[in-house]
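Researcher:
Attend to token order:
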Amino acid sequence: MKRPKAPKPTAEENAMVMRQQAALDEEIAEGEKRLKAVTRGTLGSKSLLAKASTASKAKTSRAGRGGGGYMGGYTGGGMFGLSANQIASAQAQANARSGTA
């Protein structure tokens, strides 16, 4: 026995589908605009961070070699992988350059 054919959508159902499609298209367009704006904003900073990326590559290769365990070979350090002594030394140098004691 054949299955009965599905009824054709009514004008109300067609209108609802069209509204949903239009809303979805607008949402996608807004998301794409936002992503483009974010991309435009980050392109300039990529060149500024180029020197830092080479240091981070060296840090990750070091972490892969030693240690093991959960921390990998991480030896500590601050936010940028610097020890407290390195930070204090950099602050002292900056203070000496600016004439501040």
Observations:
- The longest helix spans residues 11-48.
- The helical segments are 11-48, 50-65, 84-98.
- The chain has a mean pLDDT of 74.
- The two ends are 95 Å apart (CA to CA).
